[in-house]
């Protein structure tokens, strides 16, 4: 298991600890739930309602796509994690409370179904007391999307891309997805 997979697994299976959904600056992603994490691993191994994928993007292949069917057993949740190359550090006197993004390889994850697009959680470092919202996460090497309204049997497409040119020409990533493995439903009615 890659380091990014382990980190993603801990975040993916964490129990909410704050007063609002999503991450926050006080509790992070929540409380570690080792049993839930172990169940994600077991379910992925048996190809049940979870999957763990380790793959990579490179400058030539800039998109990774997977299609999943919602199971209806809880929310559809996807977590993307990667080990980012080291950034150039800021000067020491300026480093305390510096909110400048240090991300080198900015990967992006979106979940789509029809005309709907779901984006990852984001925090605002200028307003740390505010609850997390969703949008384009350009600060972190982890992105997590919760689709609480996932329709059982509906198909969802998870797409991973990157901005700009990848340092070292590629970026390995880990993708964890829960709430999948349902039976796809037919969208057309019977013909007479």
Please, could you describe this protein's structure?
The structure is a single chain. The protein starts with a helix and ends in a 14-residue tail after the last strand. The chain has a 4-stranded antiparallel β-sheet, with helices on one face. Helices cover 14% and strands 31% of the residues. The chain is globular, with a radius of gyration of 18 Å. The protein contains 3 helices and 10 strands. The protein is α+β, with helices and mostly antiparallel strands and 192 residues long.
Topology summary:
Blueprint: H1 3-12, H2 34-45, E1 50-58, E2 63-69, E3 76-81, H3 92-95, E4 107-113, E5 116-118, E6 121-122, E7 133-134, E8 142-147, E9 155-162, E10 170-178
Antiparallel strand pairs: 1-10, 2-9, 3-8, 3-10, 4-5, 4-9, 6-7
Counting DSSP H or I runs of 4 or more residues, the number of helices is 3
The percent range for helix content is 10-25%
The overall pLDDT, averaged over residues, is 91
Query: Which structural class do the helices and strands define?
Result: alpha+beta
In short:
By secondary structure, the chain is α+β, with helices and mostly antiparallel strands.
Keywords:
3 helices; alpha+beta; 14% helix; four-stranded antiparallel sheet; 192 residues
């Amino acid at each position: 298991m890659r380091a990014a997979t382990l980190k993603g697994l801990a975040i993916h299976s964490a129990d909410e600890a704050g007063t609002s959904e999503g991450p926050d600056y006080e509790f992070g992603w929540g409380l570690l739930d080792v049993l839930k994490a172990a169940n994600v691993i077991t379910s992925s191994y048996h190809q049940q309602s979870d999957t763990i994928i380790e793959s990579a993007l490179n400058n030539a292949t800039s998109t990774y796509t997977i299609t999943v069917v919602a199971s209806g057993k809880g929310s559809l949740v996807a977590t993307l994690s990667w080990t980012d190359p080291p950034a150039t550090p800021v000067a020491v006197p300026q480093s305390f409370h510096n909110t400048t993004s240090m991300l080198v390889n900015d990967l992006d994850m979106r979940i789509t179904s029809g005309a709907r697009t779901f984006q990852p959680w984001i925090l605002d470092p200028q307003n740390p007391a505010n609850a997390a919202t969703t949008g384009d996460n350009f600060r972190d090497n982890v992105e997590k999307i919760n689709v609480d309204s996932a329709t059982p049997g509906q198909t969802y497409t998870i797409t991973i891309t990157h901005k700009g040119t990848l340092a070292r020409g590629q970026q390995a990533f880990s993708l964890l997805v829960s709430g999948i493995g349902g039976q796809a439903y037919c969208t057309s009615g019977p013909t007479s």
